Amino acid sequence: MSAEGYLALSPESLPRRLGGLAILRERVGPPETWQVKEVGDGNLNLVFIVTGSAGQAVVKQALPYVRLVGESWPLPLRRAFFEYNALIRQEARDPGSVPAVWHFDEGQAIVVMEFLTPHVILRQALIAGRRVAGLGERLGEFCARTLFRGSDLSMPAPARKADLALFAANVELCDITENLVFSDPYFAAPLNRHTPGLDGIVARLRGDLSLKVAAQHLKLAFTSRAETLLHGDLHTGSIMVTDTETRVIDPEFATYGPFGFDIGMLIANFLMAHFSQPGHESAPGQRADHQDWLLGIVETLWQSFTTEFSHLWRTERRGILYQASLYEDQGHALAAEQALDDLLGRIWQDMLGFCGIEMHRRILGLAHNADFERIADEGRRAACEARALAMGRQLMLGAGSIRGIGTVTAMARRMD
Ligand code: ADP
Ligand code: MG
Ligand code: MG
Ligand code: MG
């Protein structure tokens, strides 16, 4: 898409430019009553909350560059197109999991959607020590439903190939993942930064030849194994919650990739939340219960994912893979169960690797986590980050010999 005619919105211009949209007049009220606030706290885009006499809406607009870095790093507007297309698929595959999309303007790179309220970003809630009922179950279901239903296990082949082609054009956002996640942490890339106390560990990681080979095996999986439609950026900053509800936002990195990618990223972010907790304590041990709760989320998330994925496997396996004609229809339900178990085992191993690498890139690369960044004392922060780095390495190198989620959480506990 060319940027011709594109103009970035401002709180001042928004009512004039979008005031004619019937859906906004209906849901928000007449534009004369609108109050507009820019709230984007993300790395890339503009996000406005529009409040009027009848209600509220969110207006998200892509900028022609990376917001975090500035105009020196151009980034195409069409990421809004991928975000829109991912949101409507996620809604179809797991109804109620994402904000309802009300309008899409491709030329202006604008998605108008439901304002989630009183939701807050999960990462902020975790830093504050808050809990969310049903969090792990819900996120496990979201991963299972979107990943299963976006794949050849479920979709008609023509539709799935059309989607593969559509999302294959999300080149620039994939390029960010390919560089920032899979390569930058392991050399002195210009945009990297890390907490000063970590110099020794960083040097050891960059000198670890097996680790650098493992990282590129994972990158090969990401770039070549187009197994299903990924969210692509599923961290705790892409999740909004109340005390009892969980919603997923911001799928602009959507692309076809390995089943294990989204879950690995997500579990990494819960593990980092766990490792960061001591940095937020005013007395030692104060956050121990919260740490236990976070590791419980990790376990529940994986269990919920496998339970729901298995359910879909047994009830909705209508795609071109592992057809019932080969198994159940011949009275070989056992073969279907064997194939399911084998596939889940492969997803598990991939998941562990992606989980490990996400922990490295969030501590060594460009995009850091507030969980650690909010720890003002550099010595305390470095101590928390060092545990996450060590665990990340172990997950990447030990993926083949770690047998269950209880082992992962036991490892995290022992690194306390
Ligand atoms: P970016 O792609 O720039 O990271 P996000 O989609 O993550 O943008 O949105 C940035 C912030 O805007 C979120 O952290 C959240 O606070 C707010 N936000 C985004 N979408 C919604 C929504 N539908 N309802 C409420 N707040 C939202
Ligand atoms: Mg975001
Ligand atoms: Mg984003
Ligand atoms: Mg503990």
From TrEMBL:
Stretches assigned to the Aminoglycoside phosphotransferase domain: 36-272
Keyword terms, alphabetized: ATP-binding, Kinase, Nucleotide-binding, Transferase
Record InterPro entries: Aminoglycoside_PTrfase, Kinase-like_dom_sf, Methylthioribose_kinase
Top-level EC class as recorded in UniProt: transferase
KW ATP-binding (keyword) present: yes
A GO BP entry: methionine biosynthetic process
Superkingdom of origin: Bacteria
Enzyme Commission designation: 2.7.1.100
The keyword Transmembrane is annotated on this UniProt entry: no
One annotated GO molecular function: ATP binding
Subunit and partners: Homodimer.
Similarity comment text for this entry: Belongs to the methylthioribose kinase family.
Protein name: S-methyl-5-thioribose kinase
Species this protein is from: Paragemmobacter kunshanensis
